[in-house]
């Protein structure tokens, strides 16, 4: 006999979230900001109180044999806590977009028609390891006037419970419903299945994690999903690129960090630039141990006598390399004729996440921006900038590679909807 | 042996649409407008040439025993043709939103970040009877830079083929790909199943028709759906409403036309207004043969001696009446305490389509606008205004009662997406 019924638990969370969402939607900006500031304060005050719960998660993870980087991601250090506390305060300082009315114009009938920004309602968030995501998601829910149901990774359950308790206290302190942010209290996998299949309570789910998890959720969800599957990002070095700038951007896009989804996985070089550019970037890649998977033209240049230091790893690319998201010290390299072939290659193989051109040619820049069908398109900047904070959104709940609703880094606006408002003086339709 | 393979046909349409969509996305505004104007001209020139195809559809429909109103909806009269031709010209005269860049701002890193409006790609449109929808959808596809695959009703197949041929000629005349607008050439139902399950080719489907069709498509689609299921719209007469205005608006919202989704199905009246207002509107409803399904308080007033003329149909409402979309000369009527109960009732029973308040109270108006969770919320105007043309969108491909992506009447912007554009001068992430 199982005393804890997952279905009943999720049903209860859903109903409570739905009820809380109506109160959150009409909460004044000052009240929401008060909750965010209270949360920041309580986080800082609780750095020590959080330690035992976090230590239990870490012990369990080590006992289970998780890798050192995985265990690291679980850690709630004073620095992590300060970062999320600061994040709450930054959100509190941002203008409130809820209730904003845009485009109000009078129509020939006399009615005035505009659009009001309102919360989506309830979002479900599914994530792994890092317990700080609990606070990021909670603070975004509060600021955007939504209710949230959070399902963190089982490995961080103790830390997440302790953090969620702080969120509840902060909500209560501001007079907001504590059910506005709820943590799923079980690590049972069935809870995820329920969370994504309650359209009567949950308006959207946002999964963050491995590709397998996201694919499964997209397939099985009965509600809209904000997600990205792959970050197969490209930098194209155009025939008019400045050599130094191209080297700096490609180096940064590939090697500044290997694991983020906005790191470059593919390098395209205009034929006229290949002889001068490839050996320069190749030397940097060689020094940093980056493996280069090259098409024949690039391989010929990089394998030429003296082009690269001994030990440089130049490998022949196969078809699957053009589609792959390595998330590692590997990059695919292809020489293209020019901007046309670059755009065509990217639109065929890219995951529609982020793609950049390095160029001085205004026409090529404009064409790249307009024709590359990706969530973020860039001229003369590193793909690593594709990020909610770098884009000025103030926060990021995820990055979307879908074209619907939210596209690219998703901040507060992605958690809102625009409804039409009509102001009349008694007009009727004739 | 079936010489015509539905799967292969749909696959071919999908691939051709995808290819055409890339060319449409970069087509200059002038070229798209040229195609629209050519289409308008060809429609007017072809009024006679279209007649035989339309006559065959009508004959077949009559032979199949379709009702007179259904047959009427099939008719391509000179007036229908002039209306759709004018619609094309109006679209041509509208500004082009594709390529528009909004919110471009410099970030602390030096990069400038904004959002560019781009076409969604390919939309599939599924509709019934009225052949003029073929032209409406085609012209919206052209203006918005999308490709479209149109699946009209089997009863209008001959008319639709003739109209689609004109669209193709207009596209060719402007130098645009004729595959930008394709009509499904078979009436086989399997074609719909394929159209909604080709995410590799089709970015969104828009069903228009009966609730059964839309429910089936929503359930089975493998791509996003822009849809509305029900239009259970309300008018709430607040305790400070002007009596004349309230009568005018409620009368118009219910009786100006019974079949549209934006007609009112429910009337809520503040208790303080009920004694004065209900007999007035009740007399109008009685005169027009509108059946009134009343809660006990409303029934008591409307059944009082001399309140209504003999023959007025006052019926006791049952629970299901509050949720029903009658699309007929029937209205549900409930007396509520005030704006709180009205908002709660609407948020519980409304289909989130369109709801209106009649009031002089500024606070009540603001609360209604903010708290009623519907696609269109109105103050002192008839719900019948919820329409793309009345809202100034220039055209309407449908009305969405979902909160995601497009909400309310959907015009050209609903067929677009915003991607991030980043302009740098060589910035890298530190």
Give the arrangement of secondary structure elements.
Two copies of one chain form a homodimer.
Chain A: H1 6-25, H2 29-45, H3 47-63, H4 68-74, H5 78-93, E1 101-106, E2 112-119, E3 122-126, H6 132-144, E4 147-151, H7 157-173, E5 181-183, H8 190-195, E6 204-207, H9 211-220, E7 233-237, H10 243-255, E8 264-270, H11 271-288, E9 291-294, H12 296-302, E10 314-316, E11 330-336, H13 339-349, E12 354-358, H14 362-371, E13 376-381, E14 398-400, E15 408-410, E16 416-427
Parallel strand pairs in A: 3-4, 3-6, 4-5, 7-8, 7-12, 8-11, 9-10, 9-11, 12-13
Antiparallel strand pairs in A: 1-2, 2-16, 14-15
Helix pairs in contact in A: 2-5, 2-7, 3-4, 3-7, 5-6, 6-7, 10-11
What does this structure look like?
The structure is a homodimer of 430-residue chains. With 430 residues, chain A is α/β, with parallel strands linked by helices. Chain A folds into two domains: 6-226 and 408-423, 3-Layer(aba) Sandwich (Aldehyde Dehydrogenase, Chain A, domain 1); 233-390, 3-Layer(aba) Sandwich (Aldehyde Dehydrogenase, Chain A, domain 2). Helices cover 42% and strands 20% of the residues of chain A. Chain A has helices spanning 6-25, 29-45, 47-63, 68-74, 78-93, 132-144, 157-173, 190-195, 211-220, 243-255, 271-288, 296-302, 339-349, 362-371; strands at residues 101-106, 112-119, 122-126, 147-151, 181-183, 204-207, 233-237, 264-270, 291-294, 314-316, 330-336, 354-358, 376-381, 398-400, 408-410, 416-427. In chain A, β3, α6 (132-144) and β4 (147-151) form a beta-alpha-beta unit. Chain A is globular and about 70 Å long. The interface between A and B is large, with 66 and 66 residues. β16 (416-427) of chain A pairs parallel with β13 (376-381) of chain B.
